Amino acid sequence: MAQPTQWQFTAQLPRDFQTKTLRQLLMTNWYLPKHLVFSLKHGKRVLVNNQYLPVNFDVHPGDRINLTFLATDFEHPYSNVIPDSAATVKVLYEDTNLLVVNKTQGSKTHPNQPGEVGTTLNHVAAYLAPKNQQPYVINRLDQETSGALLIAKNPAVVPVLVRLVKKKLVRRTYLTWVHGRLNSSQGLIAMPIGRNLADKRKRQLNGDHPQMAITRYKVISRKPDATLVAVQLQTGRTHQIRVHFAGLGHPIVGDPLYANDPRQQRLLLHSWQLRLPLPFSFNHIMLTASVPEPFRQFEQQPFK
User: Fold this and answer.
1) What is the distance between the terminal CA atoms of the chain, rounded to a whole angstrom?
2) Structural domain span for residue 46
3) How is the chain split among helix, strand and coil, in percent rounded to 5?
4) Can 225 be counted among the known catalytic residues?
5) How many domains, in total, are found in the chain?
6) Last residue of a domain, one of 152, 167, 182
7) Catalytic pick from 73, 84, 142, 255?
8) Please, are residues 36 and 12 in contact by the beta-carbon 8 Å criterion?
9) 140-184: per-residue pLDDT in tens?
10) Are residues 230 and 142 in the same domain?
């Protein structure tokens, strides 16, 4: 099947839209990077009410905007992920631009080697192949972390979603069981995280080349020996939630790197809720990913 060579988007500005220049709409409201706005302008591929409009002209409520992107607008227009079985793909949300799936625990987010298969992105590639679409990874979850994973379906929305993540307009809430009882009902952890020179798989508080990391949490429920917390990240460091709670003396249940649990205990960290603005629109979505079975099993376990 031939790969697409262009991608088109159409949107009508809402009635409460505040008049501004087309450039402001594209860059401020829709978060398009400057080089793509230049390409649209140079190729006269941005239309307002079916007419080309210079980007310094105003757009108004009710105007209809058409954008056409070409493969040549992008350094990597095709993801070229090898399709694998789509059997494990659990779709939480899908439109023409993006897909949110409930990632299976134990599945890597994306391949790291040429020809690699078996990852979530390979499974999504198989799901999208009949539609002549490809998956583009926006962010990743650790292999043992389950839950909502955001994936782009065309190259035009990749830079938009990346900017939304960078500006913290994509809000992700994690759910996790940690060992012990947290005394406060909510809190903020602000501690730098760096590399662990003794174990390259791990990170540690104030490790090598530390970067400030900020984690907010709220207690959902308690057991005598564990606490269920909802967590939001203000920064995105590797293993941030795992390292921060281990640093407090409350490692995540089942963490193979930072807790001393039996190997059969799965990591209880789940990307639970996801809220984001939809590209090329003025709408938001809020999604909840059902928790995997190990969460329910742990909640029902008697106190040890």
Assistant:
1) 57
2) 6-73
3) 20, 35, 50
4) no
5) 3
6) 167
7) 142
8) no
9) 999 999 999 999 999 999 999 999 999 999 999 999 999 999 989
10) no
